[in-house]
Amino acid sequence: MSKITSRHLLPAAVALAFVLTGCTSTPDVSVATLTQHNWSLVDATDADGHADTALRGGNQAPIQLSFQADRLGVTNSCNGMGGNYQLKNDQLEIGDLMQTMMACESELMARESAIKSRLQQPLRVKYDQQSSRLTLTNDAGVMVFQPAPR
């Protein structure tokens, strides 16, 4: 191969690599993104795209997630819950959630069961910088959170 041909092919190959990389989604969620806010649930749909009334129904304060470096806290369900988590690329995996064991009204018990079930399955995480929305998705459905006051 001549020097001229290789001189032109190398920049073209590098440019193609940048184009192909740009076509794939790269995770822009980091632990720093998760820990910078408490996250308040603003929307939840089930696997069929219907509103998940167990997570969002009633006149209760919305579910909130609070992340520390390796711990997650969940409030505004029946009991407070917490556990470890790992963020790898765009995958969030939450370990066993520990919780207090108070009895509550049935609506809050259903909410607790629903959020715990959702969080115990691996989640795909997306963060939209423009809207400051955090989206957690798995086979059970989609949950959308926005920053909440601390």
Characteristics:
150 residues; eight-stranded antiparallel beta barrel; Lipocalin; 4 helices; single chain; 35% strand; alpha+beta
| SS-based class | alpha+beta
Question: What's the order of the H and E elements?
Answer: HHEHEEEEEHEEE
The helical percent reads: 25-40%
CATH topology: Lipocalin
| Rg over CA atoms | 20 Å
Count of helical regions: 4
Number of domains: 1
Short description:
The protein has 150 residues and is an alpha+beta fold. 29% of the residues lie in helices and 35% in strands. It has an eight-stranded antiparallel barrel with strand order 1-2-3-4-5-7-8-9.
Account of the protein in words:
The structure is a single chain. The protein has 4 helices and 9 strands, in the order ααβαβββββαβββ. By secondary structure, it is of the alpha+beta class. It has a single domain, classed as Lipocalin (Beta Barrel), CATH 2.40.128.270. Strands 1-2-3-4-5-7-8-9 form an 8-stranded antiparallel β-barrel. A hairpin with a 5-residue loop joins strand 3 and strand 4 (81-88). The longest helix is centred in the N-terminal third of the chain and has 21 residues, at 3-23. It is globular and about 40 Å long.
